[in-house]
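Complex record, two chains
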Amino acid sequence: MARGNPIDSVKGFGVTFKQIFKKPITQQYPEYKRPVYPRFRGRHRLHVHENGLEKCVGCSLCAAACPADCIRVVAAENTADNRVSAGERYARIYEINMSRCIFCGYCELACPFDAITLGNEYEISEYSRDDLIYTKDMLLAEPIKKVPVADRDLYDTPIPYYQEHS
Amino acid sequence: MSATELVTVTVDGREVHVPPGTGLVETALAAGVEIPVFCYEPRLGAAVGACRMCLCEIEGMPKLQAACTLTATNGMIVRTAQTSERAAEGQEATLEFILVNHPLDCPVCDKGGECPLQDLTFRWGPGNTRMTFPKRTFEKPIPISPAIALDRERCILCYRCTRFSESVAEDGQLVALNRGAESVIATFEDEPYLAPFSGNVIELCPVGALTSTQYRFEARPWEIQNVPTVCGLCPVGCNIQATTREGKVKRILSRNHPEVDEGWLCDKGRFAFTHLRARDRIADPLRRVRRRGFDVLSWDDALGEAAELLMQAQGRIVTALSGSETVEQAYALGRLMRAGLGAHTGVLPEETSPALDAFRLPLSAIRDAELEPVAERAPIVELWVKAARRQGAQVEQAGDALEGCRRLADKRNALGKSLRESERAILIWSGEEGAGGAHLAALAKELGFAGKPASGAFHLPCTPNGRGIADAWAAASDDEGPNPEPIGLLFVSGDEAAADPNVRALAERAERVIVNAMFQGLAVGWADLVLPGTSYLERDGTYVNLEGRLQRLRRAVIPPAPDELAWISKLAERFAVEVSPHASAVFAEVSERIYDGLPFGEVGEEAPLRTRSEAPAPQLPSEPAAEGKGLRLVRYRPLFSGPAVERVPELQFQRPAPEVELSPGDAGRRGIAPGETVTVTHNGTSLQLRARITKSLREGIVRIAAEHAGELGGTVEVAK
């Protein structure tokens, strides 16, 4: 047993004791949702052009960039009666396995058409793993739950927010 | 080679010694320096220097030179882009110029990720473009054939495809239209590119201008696995890569074996793989039920049923082989039938003769020969023969093969004489009456080829592995047995056998029939029990090609049903015969008996040709007696035929038309003009076919593709 100075122990308990009189910073999570950082990387979104055509052309570059290998793209050709995207090809199947995704954002970086971005949605737990495979329709749709996002201006300051507020 | 025969070239300050005549690109490679190229491809004949990517500075020449068009000469000092700023600037300018009109649709393009233009631009090109004008556009994609799509926007005019068409396949159908900046690649007169080797241009194209319609948007290079295997659709046995994605074959690429295929593939080998996903593919065992058609069985029930059928036949079993089984599969089946059940009768798809082993040569020897009488053609062999002719070899059509043999063996014949004198003469025989090459072997022996290592003979069989299965079946047991009469059970192995009219005729005489086939169309209707079959892309094992080369098949995809070896081994267990379900173990057993104990692992990715062996004297069958008057009918199996080709929509246009080929003399005598509908009669049955006049056909012979010949045979009469 290492013998220390008993005064040090008292000092240590002193720190603990001081906290008792401070207001707790616990946030009641489901009731209160703390605004996320504006560039927080959550659930993916697929985007469409203004004319309704999908931006994604099914090039699989996101799948190539993905370190978790969670994206599966199967492409097909646009036809006159079935025009889905702006280019020659489109993604017939676009799936992201959210249980494997590590939310690194490489897919977003790799995308040559800005078709995929990471949104702010983070409440994506499910009871079944199968439900965590997001299909193209799910990714194209607006997320149902809205996540509060912190004011961008708060963060785009010369001195970072965390330096000022900690 | 002695040092005096080499020339010394300095590339970027490094000295290399190469034989004179070596191209500068290869010379630089020997010095460890890469010269980037697009249009240069030695297999396409003389270099054209079209793309200017290989610009180099050469001492003594004022301007930059295209290295691919130059050959090494003594004392040459070459400076590539790595040491010469001028060359680097030239290459960068070339790439910038190529990219002026090249669309940057790499994410959409099928070539993206395996594109030489992408790679070379990344490594040697300018980082940015100065081009601000809109790029040139064309209508796209243009289907130049059902299997190939052309995108003119992406074309960089390297002329690889037109050079292939002109000087390798010699079909001349792909041409460069217009001049200068207006040049585009097109098919002659905008007709579809109908040629047996058209698919090779897809692989030659250094950009995404010529793409396969089957592979269009199917996969990207980082999502695929390439499995090195061997094509199992014809006896040449071209080496291929099967590209698979998510457990499906997506395309077939060539895997250059310089002695077998030189990197070319025929369209059948390249495009026929989609038969794996044919709509009538059988995935479960089926049993015939009276009045209800067929019932799906579980594998346990099916094996029980099969064992019972085999038992009931009491050894009166005939096994019909199709020639597309692997050596292992045929051996395992032979063990089950012959050792387990004492049923020694096997119907082989064709005759084979071991006598030709004494005249074994690699296929590439055809190109280097100086004299070759050819009876007929097979896919890749045809390219080798064309290459030989380009190199100045004398290629003779011997016409009717049997007759031709007799003629060549005659010493007074001019050709027969020069064949005896030549050191590099090659005999090629195809067609069904060659007695498996026995006639050819006898001829080669008489011509004295045994002592000439560069002279040889090739017999082109009809089935991919006829020789292999014949040997394996023979090796399965040392006993012999009488032919059963009546036949208790006919076991049909493989689709080709199931499609064979002779086998169907046997089935009429058999009490029960078990069919092992891939497609419902071939199995249902005459079988009591159907066991699902697999294709060459779904098996492990070995094939023996027409040279006698033992080549390794690798499983590219998992078949929808267990493969043949698996259930043969289970069935054999019930009859107390031990057969391994693994190809390697079965091969070890076969190899012991017929391949001198060659280990499975040594049948490598690029299989060597076994050396010539002392072969038994050819056993000549008695010649068929000439039948009556009239024209002799030759039923031939065209390249684009068979159960696999019938199930590939892209290849339908390549299939033979219902035609009868006549010699000009015979047609003239009967007043038949090309394209006319004629009636072909034999023994009271007649068929309406279109007439075609073929100059190379000898008089007295007509040719009809087997699939259109119906029940015709022997001698026929043709009339308007």
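Note: Residues 132-277 of chain B form a domain with the Alpha-Beta Plaits fold (CATH 3.30.70.20).
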